[in-house]
């Protein structure tokens, strides 16, 4: 009997031990799961925390589709820093600093149709190109990464003669130091457009704030102009291109992962009108944008990929 009691007691102890082990195991598994979940949530939180969030005051517009059209040949077009239509319905693009003074004519398939060596030009830092209603091309030699340049200019190019026929030098009235302090590095421009015989420049802020400044430069060759900022607006990404729709009603600015779309009567009031932003997703380092009609836009990235951003049917 005594032995039997000992066996029962031992059995109960064993059952208790197993139960305790199971409980501990479950607790450990739960703790591990909680830790993993917490880790994943933190990781997911980092993923969800978009480094390029929507900008306050802008409505997110999801009525556009983005389609990758083609890719330019790296050997034929080493870089695309700006984009504009050509007189024959194709596109001009160009490289920026450190490259030759050339324009590349391409089609929507990314095929190189022509290389224009622009006579009388030097590529200090070409950042964008625009077409005027006068038929001339205008190249914005205004890249200013270090905010030290004092030779900013817009080149007037005869597309048929393939040469510079005039320069439009300018400087910023509010820049007195070259370079300014780090928080005020806001004198680099990669996006400009032309409207009613004037140019509108949008800064790529390299300082410690999100303010984009707007300047107006008159289409006057010869003496240097000193231009004042007309307006400014906070935008969460850096601006790399700009264009205005053919009907003059919409202005588009290209940022990292977004196109910022404005509805305004004039470019001077661009920041005061209706504001939307269109998500692009992963398009690489996009630097060229041009309207192909009143709603749709062609976009190029530095590596030569071409995208069509079209309003959904």
Write down the overall geometry.
Answer: globular
What fold name goes in the CATH topology slot of the largest domain? Neuraminidase
Main sheet properties: 5 strands, mixed
Protein structure class: alpha+beta
Q: List how many beta strands DSSP finds.
A: 22
Uncertain runs: 1-6, 8-38, 40-48
CA(first)-CA(last) distance: 90 Å
Report the β-strand fraction as a percent range: 35-45%
Helix percentage range? 10-25%
**Alpha plus pi helix count:** 1
Strand order of the largest sheet: 1-19-18-17-16
State mean pLDDT (0 to 100 scale).
88
Write the CATH homologous superfamily of the largest domain.
Answer: TolB, C-terminal domain
Could you name the CATH class of the largest domain? Answer: Mainly Beta
Domains counted in the coordinates: how many? 2
Q: What would you report as the Rg, rounded to the nearest angstrom?
A: 29 Å
Order of helices and strands: HEEEEEEEEEEEEEEEEEEEEEE
The CATH architecture classification of the largest domain is 6 Propeller
